[in-house]
Amino acid sequence: MKQVNLDKLDRRILDVLQQDGRISNQMLAEQVGLSPAACWRRVRTLEEAGVIVGYSARLDPEAMGQGLCVLVNLSLQRHTIDSTAEIEREVSSYPEVLQCFAVTGNADFVLRVVVPDMASYDQFLNEKIFTLRGIAQVNSNFALREIKNTHTLPVSE
Questions:
Q1: Taking the complete model, does pTM exceed 0.70, yes or no?
Q2: CA–CA separation, 105 vs 83, rounded Å?
Q3: Is the dihedral of CA 110, 91, 99, 62 positive or negative?
Q4: Long-range pairs for 22-29 at CB < 8 Å and ≥24 separation?
Q5: What kind of fold does domain 8-48 have according to CATH?
Q6: Using an 8 Å Cβ cutoff, are 39 and 32 in contact?
Q7: Which one, of 103, 97, 106, 99, lies nearest residue 129 by Cα?
Q8: What CATH code would you report for 68-142?
Q9: What is the pLDDT of residues 37-78, one digit of tens each?
Q10: 30-46 pLDDT, tens per residue?
C-alpha cells in the first residue's frame, strides 16, 4: 500500500479518533473545525484509503482474566517458504497470540501472548508451540509490569 498524503485536517481527525474512536461526527467536526458533512466525507475517505483500518474497544487483560503477558522468541531450524508459512498460519490461529512479528536478530518470530497464569502458559507451550514443526528454540520473557501499551500512531507533521 502506498502512503497517503494527509493534510493538517486529516491528521487532526486521525489524532482525535485515535483518542476516542466513539466520538460522534458532530463532536469530531467541532474539534477539528469542519462542518459535520465535510468531516464525515473526510473520515469516509480515510477509511476507503485504508488509513483507518477499523474501530475497536480496548480491554483490560487482568479484568478479563488474562493477566500473564509473555514475549516469546521462536527460532526456526530451517528457513523455507513452506515451513515459515505454516508456522505463520498456525501461530495466527492461536487466540492467545495477540501479536506476531517476523524479526531479525536472535529469533525469527516474536509473539506477544496473554494467558491467565503460568499453568495456562505451560499448556499453551506444550499443546501448541512445541507441536509446531521446524521450531529449534523457544525463549520466554515474562512481563513484570506494563510501562506503555498504545496503538496510537504519531500523526503530527
A1: yes
A2: 19
A3: negative
A4: 22/55
A5: Arc Repressor Mutant, subunit A (1.10.10)
A6: yes
A7: 97
A8: 3.30.70.920
A9: 999 999 999 999 999 999 999 999 999 999 999 999 999 998
A10: 999 999 999 999 999 99
